[in-house]
Amino acid sequence: MKNEVLVKIFLSIATLVSACVPVVAAEPNVVIERADMAYRFVADKNGQPERVEATERTTFRANRTPERAIAMGGYNDIVKLDKATGGEVTYGLFYNDDVFFDNSKAVIVAVDLKKAGAKGTASISTTYTKPEFFAKVFLTEPYDLEEATVSFEIPASLAGRYTFEPRNISPDQISQTTERKGNSEVFTFSVKDLKADKHSPDAPSRNITAPQIVVRGHFADVDALYRYLLEYIDPDDPGIAAVEAKAREVTAGCSDDPCRIEAITRFVRENIRYVAVEHGEFGHRPDKASEVLRKLYGDCKGSASLLRAMFRAVGLDGRFVWIGTTNIADRWTDLPSVCSGDHVIAAVVTADSVIFVDGTARYVRPGHIPQAIRGRQALIENGPERGLTVDVPEALPRENLLTSDFSATLTPEGRMEMEGTLTFSGADEDAFTYLLHDTPPARHDAVLAKLITACLKSSDAKAGAVTDNGGSTSLAATATSAGRVKKVSSRLYVDVNPMSRLSEEKFDVKERTEPGVIETSAYDSTLSLSLPDGMTAEPGTEKKVDVENEWFTATVETTLDPSASTLTRRLRLDRRKALIPASDLPRYNADLAKVVKACSQNVILTPAS
């Protein structure tokens, strides 16, 4: 469920347009000299919001050489395209980078700038037929923007209802004025000197980081929003008897409620294919439970509808839950808006707890909550007037954990041979299980070998048995590496790094203005090396390195067993916070480098004599 049309359209403009124009240097050839975005709210005869009329004019300038500039807009069942002018206009389907399909379309205006200094203006006019979905104006562009105005015209009948909140824009880059225009009030923001969008894949979503102006006021509070969302749920399902019969069949062998919840959850996840389709009202209205069961597919709302009905059929209190994933910036109670959610799940409410069930999490272990909704605020169905707002629990410490335990020997040819297991828990287990199921069987060995290689820095890796431990999943593995051992005279320099992929978590901070986000889990990694006969570790090999900051704590410890025949290096890294402000990324990188250095520090083996 993508509740917010603007998120779909505006957040992907920079990505789509960047494919249409050359990659530019620090001083780009094409800039937006001026953008004027005007949004006029229109009320119906009862003084309620009826539509929003939008006109966006973009003036481009070529600084050095001729070039073609691109302006783009989107339209669909909710956003109606009125006019596009100013250059060569083309139309097509709009594809964004998530798993959803809908009927969104794109209009592109190509403006030819025929010489240095040339200017050209593209204009796109649209109408939001459902003003509740006009929730944000994003100022992301693939070009540097020198100057812009964003104005909101509010008629007298809507006076005092709406407010506008700039985000992710420095105060010295934006100013606001208010003026009367007939019977309307116009709020105008003047913006200057915004850089071209350069969103990093390891940053939070643009929804969180992009320069934007939030529109507040369509819903007076979270209860008004709840009643609006509740209107989409149709209580009439003529085929409900089939759903109830299936629920009784699935739970026939259960003697308690936890068993019934797990049995129904497993049935829906294993039998209802997740197909995300948005079209008109269907993009926001849940499909009937009986239809989902009949078709054996549905989107997140459809699976939630079926779960809710099946839970209720066996005496459980099943309910709808509207929620935002980690891609969403706001909580329902902080911003009562359709843009504060992008997902629907189900819940079973008991006397003392709420059990959240995501029907789309096909391979997630029953009882485990997917990481994308951890810590998020849920809006739970609760009668006709007021919903429940409950925070989904955060992951427990070390719940999301990658454990590796390997033993190693050195061959006479100077290679390191490793054997052991990788064990995945929590979110890591979810990701690993998805990897197994979504990879064609013919490619399993290659994909798992690549995973092992990333963890162990090996040139030859082979996957063994996969074992369900009833709370985690283990992968047996062997690997061989020639690059871990170097011989200099009679000495051996050996790399006993227990987790090589840790180095991949470094951020590129060059010209970066966005925060970073770490989504990987905690590590508990051990590599034990059997020393070759006649070799001993140099004095000083045993050491311990501790690193601690706001985002992680890490300990790297190298030890020898009492007989001095086995050397063990262990990494233990625990996560604290996932979000790292842009100004702190260099410090994060420096601390991570200390951990990586301690993990990869060579041990020196010398002849015992």
Can you describe this structure in just a few lines?
With about 600 residues, this protein is an alpha+beta fold.
Report on this structure.
With 609 residues, the chain is an alpha+beta fold. Helix content is 19%, strand content 39%. It has 11 helices and 36 strands. The strands form 9 sheets. It has an 8-stranded mixed beta sheet with strand order 25-26-24-23-30-34-33-32. Strands 4-8-2-1-10-13-12 form a 7-stranded mixed beta sheet, with no helix packed on it. The protein has a 5-stranded antiparallel beta sheet with strand order 20-19-18-21-22, covered by helices on one side. β25 and β26 form a beta hairpin. α6 (257-271) packs antiparallel against α8. The chain starts with a helix and ends with a strand. Residues 1-26 and 97-101 have low confidence and may be disordered.
Overall 3D form: globular
Radius of gyration: 28 Å
- In helices, the fraction of residues equals 10-25%
Number of strands: 36
The strand line-up of the biggest sheet is: 25-26-24-23-30-34-33-32
Number of helices: 11
Distance between the termini: 70 Å
Low-confidence spans:
1-26, 97-101
Structural class: alpha+beta
Mean pLDDT: 92
Largest sheet: 8 strands, mixed
Report the portion of residues in β strands.
35-45%
What secondary-structure arrangement, pairings included, does this model have?
Blueprint (H helix, E strand, L loop, with lengths): L4 H6 L2 H6 L11 E14 L5 E14 L4 E9 L3 E7 L2 E6 L7 E2 L2 E9 L5 E10 L7 E3 L6 E11 L7 E5 L6 E8 L2 E11 L11 H4 L2 E5 L5 H9 L9 H11 L6 H15 L1 E2 L2 E2 L10 H7 L1 E2 L1 H14 L4 E6 L19 E7 L4 E4 L19 E4 L7 E4 L9 E10 L5 E10 L1 H12 L5 H13 L3 E9 L4 E9 L3 E4 L2 E4 L21 E2 L4 E9 L4 E3 L5 E6 L3 E9 L5 E10 L3 E2 L4 H16 L2 E5 L2
Parallel strand pairs: 1-10, 6-16, 15-17, 23-30
Antiparallel strand pairs: 1-2, 2-8, 3-7, 4-8, 5-7, 9-14, 10-13, 11-14, 12-13, 18-19, 18-21, 19-20, 21-22, 23-24, 24-26, 25-26, 27-28, 28-36, 29-35, 30-34, 31-36, 32-33, 33-34
Helix pairs in contact: 5-8, 6-8, 7-8
